[in-house]
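Good morning C.,

I know you're traveling, so I'll keep this short. The sequence:
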Amino acid sequence: MLSYLIFMATLACIYGLMALGLNLMWGMTGLVNLGLVGFFAVGAYASALGVTALGLPIGAGMVLAMLVAGAAGALVSVCLARLRDDYFAIVTLGFAEVIRVVADNEIWLTRGSDGISGIPQPLRAQLGTAFNPAYLALCALALLAAWLMLERLRTAPLGRVLRALRDDQHVAATAGKNVLKFKALASAVAGTLAGLGGALYAHHSSYIAPDVFQSIVTIYVFLAVTMGGRGNNTGAVLGAFLVVGFLEGSRFLIDQLPWLTSVQGAALRQIVIGLALLAALIWRPTGLLPEPRARSAVP
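The tokens, ready to paste straight into the viewer:
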């Protein structure tokens, strides 16, 4: 049971990185990105291929994943600069599907549906049974560093610019702000965090395949940010832990219903997750931890 709890906490930290990235794009900048899992996949494959095919150290593979996913985020934002709201969301969803289909068909690079196995894990032989707790500590440190960075950004002038873009980008442009540059920056940072999450996932599971990167992962991250509090970094992390706990904990509840087949149980879990999202939107539309409002200093 302890091993499973450690696994859940590790997965929650990885989801927390993606939730922080989504909170930066959606919660602070107003960009509805439905292709977050695409950057997650790019980071996972970049690190896995860098280590297994190019012989890079694991740390260098993770850095490569962050750079490639961050560049992909900036590129997508620049290419879709003329799209607004729903159109931007739909095309980013298509981007994630393109990444998954390419990974499924380019067998020479990604091994297709067979996936990449035997991805090295850091200090696995030396740590032995202590590997999982140590890897949880690594993921927690990465999540803490990302949270501290985004908290600093939230209160910095850059954070105020991003919120101005969210509220009305035309007014921000009139005030002399380069809308495209700041959107690309937010997308790059979000892509970098998602790419780091993908790299951590790849080296933790030691195996990745295209089926892992379904669009439902993005929905889970949106659910985390919605439940935790859009625009609140602490709420995004809290929501990630709640969603992972709910997703994994519901497996045990379904097991208590022996008259359901495995397929029916999986479908029931998805229904319950959808109902949880609706309940969160109805009863807590601003999330458990609403976005903190800046207060001007008393002269």
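Safe travels,
E.
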